[in-house]
Amino acid sequence: MSSQDQTAPRASLTSAATPGTEAGKPSLARRILSDGFSSWALALPVTLVLAFFLLAPIALIVVVSFWGSTSFSIYPAFIFDNYEYLLGSQVTYSVFLQTLKFAFLTWAITLVLGFTIAYYLTFHIHSLTWQIVLFLLCTIPFWTSNIIRMISWIPFLGRNGIANQSLMNMGVIDQPLEWLLFSEFSVTLAFVHLYTLFMVVPIFNTMMRIDKSLIAAARDAGANGFQILTNVVIPLCKPGMMIGSIFVVTLVMGDFITVRFMSGSQIANMGRLIQNDISLLAYPGAAATSVVLLITVLIMVAVMLRLVDIRKEL
Amino acid sequence: MDGKRGLSFYILTGVFILFLIFLYGPTITIAILSFQGPEGGLTFPMRGTSLHWFRDLFAEQAVGDIWGSFRRSLALSMMVMVTTIVLSVMGGLAFRRRFAGSTVLFYVIIASLVIPSILVSLGVGLMFNQLGWNINWYTSAFGAQLTWTLPFGLLIMFAVFNRFDRSFEEAARDQGANPWQVFRHIVLPLIAPSLIGVALFGFTLSYDEFARTLLTAGSRNTLPLEIYGMTTNVTTPVIFALGTLTTVFSFCVIGTFIVFALIWQKRQARRVSDAGKGMV
Amino acid sequence: MTKFTKRNGLSRRTLLKGAAASVTAAGASTLGAPMLWAQNEIVLRQAGTGVSAFNEIAAKAKEDLGITLEITALDSDAVAQRVATQPNSFDIADIEYWICKKVWPIGNLQAMDTSRIANYDKIVGIFRDGKLTPESTIAQGTAPHSVGFVEGVDGREFVNNESGWMTLIPTIYNADTLGIRPDLIGRPINNWSELLNPEFKGKASILDISSIGIMDMAMVCESMGEIQYGDKGNMTREEIDKTIAIFTEAKKAGQFRAFWKTFDESVNLMASGEVVIQSMWSPAITAVRSQGIPCVYQPLEEGYRSWGGGIGLNANLSGAALDAAYEYINWYLSGWVGGFLMRQGYYSAVPETSKDFMSENEWGYWFEGKEATAPIVNPQGVQMEDVGAVRDGGSFYDRMGAVACWNAVMDENQYMVRKWNEFIAA
């Protein structure tokens, strides 16, 4: 309703423009684009898709988290068993901490690495074409199925893998390093591999918009490279860093497949708890864990969004 | 930072090269192992070298149906890509002004981006199940994937329209163009380069999506699910051959893209235009 | 005029139909297939574990029966999930017996009339009265016969006799044990307890599928003398706690290199030398060996942990599709499939029909435990064994006669699963 008064002036503007067109026939497309509720009509498909495939399913998860289950079926109920078990088990907390630990480690590493790469592409590569070429070069490995790449880490990092063989040939080590594979190290490594680009893109995006004259001005004022970095570049890149952080943190928090493959199933995170329950048909249990994970992620994102006005930064 | 290349340039180039090696580590491993001899496995040591697994890729597999699932994945990614483009452009246009509920919708879009994919998968699967509907790659999986590609497409379009110069449109309108003509002849050409980005995101994110499809694909697998399914049986380096071919294919696509970009750039340079500036 | 074209069209169609029928009929007479479905375009969707989801079987079924078989390969949890929650996604479920115990009561499957199964009488005793030979004792766990029969087509309760209504028609089964790398271990391994021997610290693995893994654990704990189980296949909470505690301790001490969940992970772990001793499945051993890497499916004093799979029919199947499904099952048991699967190291439910589809050498090696008189090749034609090789564990009766327990679903299943998750997360 209020949409109408907001768009009223615009509607008159467009109608003023119409007489000159070929005919007064209001085609559907034209009506959608010009009518008072054009915004609403245009946003409707997206709204419907998200309502049906995001909001409704999530609502259902919340509902199901209170249902009961037998070993092969679920039944509607309103019980707290799932939460009771979840919150009453020591394992939940250690898994929860493990999940946060991976999120933090991956976040810290990808932030530094992503910033460095973005900085290099922005300030050391001068032609747009080369920037694009180098960036695309970074994306090619991601076109190969993640599962295949995950499997290939074993021959890369394993006892007889490329990494150990090269290190031994170079004489750096004389025993294969066991912790390269099936460890927290390998899980974090795979996360960094997967998600650094999610950090690079938004940081690169904000960095490209930094007015070069600001940097020149800082230099003229006698700032050295490091001071320019900390006083000019980093503050101006904060929004990009924040958006990248949102990506990386939420992706790591919700992962279940990377942890399983790269730890050789030996480490659990929240996603794996959910996946385990799902595979055992214990949907209510999975739903309860999902709700806890969802709340955690939403809180984290809300905090990060406080630090940056994402709408303004787009 | 300017023309002169100081020490920092060389250090950062080194970092970048190391990063590339790191990124390509698995790709290289896959490439090497895809040339395993006919008796070789998925791990080192190599048992001879051959093109056996590339040939095998095009023959029928003992288990599963790589090409069937590849076709489904391709079709699904195309569907997701086209839908993402259309809905993102519409959404982008909608968000050029505030409307009732726009803030709520905006945060729902953000939520769609941050909610773990396994939850969407579980939720959509459960919902279809409770409604008594069949899950299918072209219904439930399609919808589940849209919740992942749409936010990307929309955010890109928001960014594009935030920096969109309205004077072109107004000029066209003054010339008497109707809104559809304005969109078709002014707005669309200007946002076209960004649409390539949306398309690329939509396609790639959908093509390799595993978690969101896991519980929503129904009886016919998409490629990532198929590869995962293959691992329940004797898996051979044929999946590495597939990986290598994918990489070669991506190089070709991106190479073509760059060539086109260069040609386009030259053509743009010949015109007196700075339209390219507002693009990124 | 319209009448004429219509008739014309009709006659052309009948002509084509006739031609197709005669072609397929010619095929039928040479192959001796009992019935043909090509004209009706019968499609059966089979969901199963990768263990038996071979395209060769689908191709052969098409050739022999004219039935199009669409096979989807999944891991065992996913199959169970599909059978339980997506009854419209499959026509035939290829599942293990312990999964059957879990999903049968949901009612998405229908029992099969044994009078329509031609080779029913020849099915191995394990699947009928539970006894391999009349003298055999029945092993612990979810023995196939105990969940193999119900009362009538819609029966939901398992019955303890050959009621004439079978839940699953057995397809393949095997006796599992530990796989080892003899070249990297260098000494004989005779007991399940070796899995937790500190000698193999960081080089052992167990599978991360709770219902199967817990049984391997029980075999180990019993072999170590730590726990005496009342029934390994139906543990009490105390027994579960104790078992998991022993393994959690070992895990924390770094005994395990990894856990595996999919078949190829077990192959990769073994082939790459990451692991030298682990729970393993027979074809995985074959896969490692055909890479030229020594790997033994070590028979152990305590006996084997066994499993069996079978195909079940969707409750919604009826009419021509149901007839086709019966046709398919009869064909499955008639020998070709059995021979095909036995060459991969599994056993067929009706071994005697498979004999005709294997060479004497193959039959001797795979079933009778005799020395190979000619090289043994795998289904892809790659040589696996030289002349003189003997199958690990010996003959069918040696191996299936030494089964200590079956994969099982326990009364305390949910409790066990929770404990298992804790073990994985520990």
CATH level-four homologous superfamily name of the domain at 63-233 in chain B: MetI-like
CATH fold-level topology of the largest domain in chain A = MetI-like fold
Provide the β-strand percentage band of chain A. Answer: under 5%
The outline of chain A comes out as: globular
> Uncertain regions of chain B: pLDDT < 50 for 5+ in a row?
275-280
Q: Greatest chain-chain interface?
A: A-B, 108 and 109 residues
The appropriate CATH architecture of the largest domain in chain A is: Orthogonal Bundle
Helix content of chain B: 55-70%
Radius of gyration of chain B: 23 Å
Query: What is the subunit arrangement here?
Result: heterotrimer
Give the strand tally of chain A.
2
Number of domains of chain A: 2
Can you count the helices of chain A? 15
The name of the CATH architecture of the domain at 63-233 in chain B is Orthogonal Bundle
InterPro entries (chain C): SBP, TAT_signal
Pfam families (chain C): SBP_bac_8
Protein name (chain C): Extracellular solute-binding protein
Keywords (chain C): Signal
Structure description:
The complex is a heterotrimer of chains A (314), B (280) and C (426). Chain A is mostly helical. Chain A has helices at 2-17, 28-34, 38-64, 81-88, 90-124, 128-139, 146-157, 162-169, 184-208, 212-220, 225-254, 257-262, 270-279, 283-306, 310-313, and strands at residues 68-69, 74-75. A two-stranded antiparallel sheet of chain A has the order 1-2. In chain A, strand 1 and strand 2 form a beta hairpin. The longest helix of chain A is centred in the middle third of the chain and has 35 residues, at 90-124. With 280 residues, chain B is mainly α. In chain B, helix 3 (66-94) packs antiparallel against helix 10, helix 5 packs across helix 6 and helix 7 packs antiparallel against helix 8 (179-207). Chain C has 426 residues and is an alpha/beta fold. Chains in contact: A-B, A-C, B-C. Chain B binds chain C through residues 38-44, 47, 60-65, 129, 134-135, 218-221, 228-235, and chain C through 45, 47, 49-51, 53-56, 59, 70-75, 82, 85-86, 88-90, 262-265, 267-268, 271-272, 283-284, 286-288, 290-293, 379-380, 382.
